[in-house]
Design goal:
2 copies of one chain form a homodimer.
Chain A: H1 4-17, H2 27-34, H3 38-50, E1 54-57, E2 63-66, H4 75-82, H5 110-128, H6 131-134
The structure holds a DNA duplex.
InterPro entries (chains A, B): TR_Rrf2-type_CS, Tscrpt_reg_Rrf2, WH-like_DNA-bd_sf, WH_DNA-bd_sf
Pfam family, one (chains A, B): Rrf2
Keywords (chains A, B): DNA-binding
Chain lengths: 136, 136
DNA sequence: GCATTATCCTATTAAATCGATAGGGTAATA
DNA sequence: TATTACCCTATCGATTTAATAGGATAATGC
């Protein structure tokens, strides 16, 4: 299940991508427009800023803005930042790999086999979908 | 993230599918072989039995066994029984649909758009993968 | 300069879910 | 008729999630 954190993050990013200019947008503007808890959204945007997706400006006329062209922001980046692993099981995760306690042999594991397929497929979609694609 | 419930359930089903005959297998045998908590596995197999995937036999020589040919058990069935919705967001779920509180218009929602793609793709994989495929 | 604005940061919390455990009841078999 | 093994309910600790609170800090415009 997708967390609200990720869901809200994507919505906020799309909102920013739809802005004509790159002028900063206040948290409260996005939060009201997208029906997101202001404080919760605040922490999400902070994460995105700390990881180089967003820039911010303090004081009057401040807010958040995209640092890159939406075309250059693949969903893989967003998902990994906010949601964490894309794979459904740690043992098939590229960026968050973990061995299973129970499995003696990963290659013989049926769960591993099917979830690897799912991950490959999902990954492909997220890789080929950019923020620009979602903003149309 | 895939729950251990589903993970264990798949492993148990594969174990049963690998049996040459359809003789009942005791919970404890599967639990030991697959490194699964006996009691936890018990509740999982019970769910699978109540939903027509497994049959059971009480008393000496009893245990669980598959009711259908592994070829006729698609992973969609297993996933929906144990994990619940296949979609990452309720608003794109076929069997567990729910409207989002925040979204005024589903068709205009970016999250909806991308997650629909992911669901279609994942669903296709689960549909085309049977228990028999995982048991080889 | 100074008041205003809006981000920045830490801590807390209520609720839900997950994984596991406990303990006995019931039915079938040999 | 004793044994075996599934059946059923209840509980519990740990973790995660979503949200909230309260103030510190920095930048802007007048």
């Amino acid at each position: 299940m997708l967390s609200k954190k990720t869901k809200y993050g994507i919505k906020a990013l799309v909102y920013l991508a739809k802005q004509e200019n790159r002028a900063p947008v206040q948290i409260s503007v996005i939060s009201q427009s997208e029906n997101i808890s202001r404080k919760f959204l605040e922490s999400i945007l902070l994460t995105l800023r700390k990881n180089g997706v967003l820039g911010s400006k303090k004081g009057k006329g401040g807010g958040y803005y995209l640092l890159k062209d939406p075309k250059n922001i693949p969903m893989t980046d967003v998902m990994r930042l906010l949601e964490g692993p894309i794979a459904m099981v740690p043992c098939v995760s590229l960026n968050f790999y973990e061995k299973c306690d129970d499995c003696p042999d990963e290659n013989a594991c049926a769960v591993h086999k099917i979830m690897l397929k799912v991950r490959d497929n999902t990954l492909e979609i997220f890789r080929n979908t950019t923020l620009a694609d979602l903003s149309n």
